[in-house]
Structures are given as structure tokens and as C-alpha cells.
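hey so i finally got around to running the thing on that chain from the lab meeting. sorry it took forever, my laptop kept dying and i had to restart like 3 times. anyway pasting the input first so we r on the same page abt which one it is
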Amino acid sequence: MPLGSKFNVISFGTNFTKLFPSSQVYSEATLKKAVDVVSKFDADMGGTEILQPIMDAIGGKIDLDLPRHLYLLTDGEVSNTKEVA
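ok and heres what got predicted. didnt touch it at all, straight out
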């Protein structure tokens, strides 16, 4: 990730949680925190409900000075694919 980028991590299942309340500037400290948390992830949050986490991610405050990217990683099957798309 380029310096000056902002990022967040959203884990999801039946519900979802954010690593940070809002996207944080990429730094050694924020990257370390993200790696520490993500390394402990397990597929134990129930179903694969991704619509609400996606809506939350794209509905947040936009920084017009930065490009916006969303990377979605899942190990589950999405049952409402048409609604999500």
C-alpha cells in the first residue's frame, strides 16, 4: 500500500465488525495492528452475509484526494448474489 493511503478491515459473517471506527492512514503501527488482528481470524462468525458490510464500506465518508478500492475476501457461499451485485 502506498504511503498516505487509508484502509480498514471489516470482518463479516452473520454480523460484521470494523477494525477501526473509520479508515486509518497506512503506517507501520496501523499495519501491525491489522496484521495482528487478521492473523487471528477464523471462519466462526456464522453465515456469509456480505451486503451490509459492503454498504457500510462504500457508504462512509469519501476522501476525494485518494482513489477508492474495495477488496472482498470470503470463504463462504453468498446466497443473495443478485442483491449484492
